[in-house]
User: Fold these one by one.
Assistant:
Number 1:
Amino acid sequence: MQFFRTLTLRYRCPNSAKLIIALAAVALVVTACAAIVRPVPEAPETAEPADPAPYSERNRRDAMRPGSLYSELEAAIARWPEFAEAAASITFDDGTRDQYLVAAPVLERHDVRATFFLISHKMDRGVWVDQAGPRRLMSWREAARLADAGHEIGSHGATHVDLSRNDVNLELELDASRTQIERRLPGVTVRTLSWPYWRSTPEARKHASETGYIAARGGAAVPDQFRNLQETGTLNVPAMGLRPADPAEEWDELAAEAVANGGWMVYALHGLDNGSIPDMELGWEPIPDSELERIITRLQARDVWIAPFGEVAAYKQLREMARVHLEPLSYDRVRVSLRVDHDAEEIPPKLTVRLAAEGTLLVTRDEDNRGAEADLPAGSERSAVVSLRPNLDSVVIERRGR
Ligand SMILES: [Zn+2]
C-alpha cells in the first residue's frame, strides 16, 4: 500500500480517481498472483516428433468424435509376416563341403533361404579335424556364392572349441570369428552364431549380446532332449538336431506342435548326402538329401514363414518392442505408423499390421512422408494389411462408406 500512498501524495488525485487507482492496483495484484499459480505448460514430449502437417481444429474434433475411424480402428501387429501360422529356419553347422554341394541345390530348388554357420578360422586351410577325423570345408568362394543367393552366413566360433568351458577366449571365438568372416566375404554382416556342441554359458551369451550378435542357436540331438530344452532367450534358441538314426515321425510331431502354437521351428543340420559325395566332404552324421526335401515340402504345405535364422530373430525382437501409433486426421482418416523407442542401428525389417473397422478401408500413401516404403494393398471390406518399418514408414487409412 506504500506504493498507492506515494501515488496519491505525489499527484494529489481527487477521491474518484483514488478509487480507480485502488481498483487498478488490486486488479494488478490479482493478475500477478494468477500468473504465478497457473501451471507452467509442459514441455512438448520429445519422444513423439511434432505433427508434420497439423490438421485443422475442426478436423481434429471430428476425428475424435464417437463413431470416427480413429475411435473404432483396431490395429494388430502380426506374430509373423503376412500372418503366417508359424516360422521356421533351416540352419547348417560347420560349413562342410556337402552343404554347398548337396544342401544348397535342394534349398534353391524350393526357393528356401537358409543359414550356414562357419568355423571361421578353419576355412582358410579348408580342413577341420574333429573326433572322427579330417573333414573338408567349403571354400570362401563357395560361401560367397551362398551369401549371393540370399542365404545367411553366421559364426560357429573361430576354432569349434566348446564355449561352455571356462578357459576359452571369447574375443577370438566370437569377435575375431565375425571379423574374419566379414573380411573374407565382403558385403556380409554376421549377426548370429550357433554354439559349438550347442553349449554355452551365461557369460558367453552375455559376451555375444554385448558385442552385437542379435541371436544365437543351441540345439538338441534327440526329440526327448529337445522337449526338455529351456529357451534362455534369443541367445540360446533351441533347435532340432536331426540325425539319420532318429525316427522322423517324432521330429514331425514336434514340428506340428510348433505350428499349432504359432512358434518358431529351428532345424540344426550337419551332413547332407546324395550318395555321390566322398566321405571326407561329408559333415557329421549326414542325413539323405531326400530328408531335407521332405522337411521343406512339409513346411511349405502349411502356411509357415521359412526364413534365415537372423531374419526371424530380428522380426521377433522388433515385433516384441514395436507399438502401433495412430494419429487422427479427420473423421474418416487416420495416419498409421509403428514406433520403437530405441534407434535402430540398421534399417529395421517391415512388420505386418492388420487394420480393421466397420466399412470399406482404403490404404493410401502418406503424402507427408515421402521416404515411406509401405506396401499398399487394395482396399478391402473391414480390414487391410500393411507392412511398415518402425520409425520410418507411415500410411494413411481412409474409410469409404460403412
Ligand atoms: Zn559344430
Number 2:
Amino acid sequence: MLEVHGLSKRFPGVQALDRVDFDVDAGEVVGLIGENGAGKSTLIKVLAGVHRADEGQVLLNGEPVGIHTPQDSFSLGISVIFQELNLVGNLSVAENIFLGRELRSPGVLRSFLDFGRTTQRAQQLMQQAGLNCDPRLAVEELSLSHKQMVEVAKALSINSKIIIMDEPTSTLTGQETELLFQIIERLKSSGVAVVFVSHKLDEVFRICDRLHVLRDGRHVGALQTARTSRDELIRLMVGRDLGTLFVKQEAQISDTVLEVRDLGSPKGIEHVSFDLHRGEILGFAGLVGSGRTEVMRALFGIDKRTSGEILIDGRPVSIHSPSDAIAHGIGFVPEDRQVQGLVLGMDVRQNVTLASLQAVSERGFLIDAREQGVTGSFIEKLSIRTPSQEQIVVNLSGGNQQKVVVSKWLATNPRILILDEPTRGIDVGAKKEIHRLMSQLACQNVAIIMISSELSEILAMSDRIVVMHEGRKKGELDRAQASQEKIMEIALRQTDQGVA
Ligand SMILES: Nc1ncnc2c1ncn2[C@@H]1O[C@H](COP(=O)(O)OP(=O)(O)OP(=O)(O)O)[C@@H](O)[C@H]1O
Ligand SMILES: [Mg+2]
C-alpha cells in the first residue's frame, strides 16, 4: 500500500536517512525498529509532511505521491501520532481532537463552533480509545499517559488508511497498552495499515507482523516477526551482540541518608514514610497514577507539602524549592523531559552543565574547558548521538534528549539521586549503560531512588522496593523476597493491612 524508495534526509552534521526503503500493506502492522537516533522519527516526519526528503520516492498503491506539507499527508489518508505529543495545552481535550477540523453550528451560526456536538463526538472517540475523562478538561491538566490516549483518539477520528505511531506506549500503563493493542487489532482487521515504533521488544514481537530495522540512518533489514528472534533483532539493530542483560553489582549499603516521615501533598499524597541508605537503590513500583512522581515532587520541593518531615543524615531539613533540594545534594531526573528536564532551545553542553554551574565555574566565571570535559565524558559514556556539544537539544532524537537529562543530574554529583522512569524511550544498548552507571554510582555511596513502570527493571535494579497505590505506600519488599506477583498483589490490595 505504502512504499518508500531510496529516501534520504540530511540535517547539518547528520545524515538522518540514507537511501531508506520501507513498505507497509493494508491490514498489516509493521514495526520500525532501531537505536536512539537511527532515523525512525525522521522517516515518519517525512511521511507526515513535516520534513522534506532530499531524495527518494513515496508510492501509494503503486502511484508516486508528493508529500510537501502536513495537509498533503493528511489528504492522502495518513495520520501520525508523534513521539513528542502534538497537543495544545490550554485547549480542551475535545478541541484538540478536532483541531483544524472543527465541527460548526448549523445555518447562520456556522461561524461558531458547535460545542455540544464536538464534546459528544469527542466523548465517543475517547471511549473507543479507552480514555475516561471529561472532554472539556484542558489537555495540560492531563497526565502524560492520558495525553497519549488523546492523540490516539485524534488519530481514530480521521478514518485514516495509514496510522503511524511513534513510541505510543512509552508513557502508557500496562492496561492502557493492552487497550491500544486491541485498537490496533481492530484497525488491522478493517484494512488499515499500521506502523508501530517502540523500544519495548516484547511489544514489538507481540503486535507486529513484519519489522523494518534502521541503523545510523540506513535500512539494514526487513524481517518476518514470526521467523526471527529477539537476539537476531538486537544484533541487526546494534550491529553486534549485546550479551546478557546487565547484572547489578553488589554495593555496600550503609547509613541512613534520607528519612521521609508522614509526607502529604495537595496532589493526593498521604502518610508516606520511607528511609534510604547510602549505596542503596530503592525502587518505587505501582501503577501510573499511584502517586510515585508526586511523592518525589513533594520531596524535591516542586509541590507544596501539607504534612511531613524530611531528615538528611538524621537532621530535619527544610526543602521548599528545588534549589533547596539541590543544596542538600539531591538530584531529580523528571519523567516529562520536555516540560521539566530540558531547555530545548539551549545546546547539549549548556543543558548538561545547567544544574552544576558551580562545578564548572571559578569565582563566578564559567570555565569552558571544564564544561567541555564534563559534557564530553557524558556524550561518550551514554553514547549520546549528536554532531557536536553545540547542537540545540530540540534537534536530538527523543532517546538522546533523555540521555542529556540523565547526564545533567549525574553531573551535579548528587548524594541522593531520584530517577523517574530513567530509561523511558531509551534503546536496549543505552538502557544497559544507564543501569551500569546507576550501579556504579551506588558503589560510590550515592543513594538512589528509581521510579519505573517496568517491573523487570524494578526487580533487576532495586535493593528494596516501595509499592504505592492511590497516593499511599502499600508495602515494602526486600530484593530477596520480591517478585512480579508480589508487587502486583500489594499494589492491588484493597485494605491497608500489612503496610510496612
Ligand atoms: N530537526 C533536526 N535538526 C537536526 N538534526 C536532527 C533533527 N531531527 C533529527 N535530527 C537528527 O537526526 C538523527 C535521527 O533522529 P530521529 O529523531 O529520527 O531518531 P529516532 O530513530 O527517532 O531516535 P529515538 O529512538 O531516540 O526517538 C539524529 O541524529 C538526530 O539528532
Ligand atoms: Mg524518535
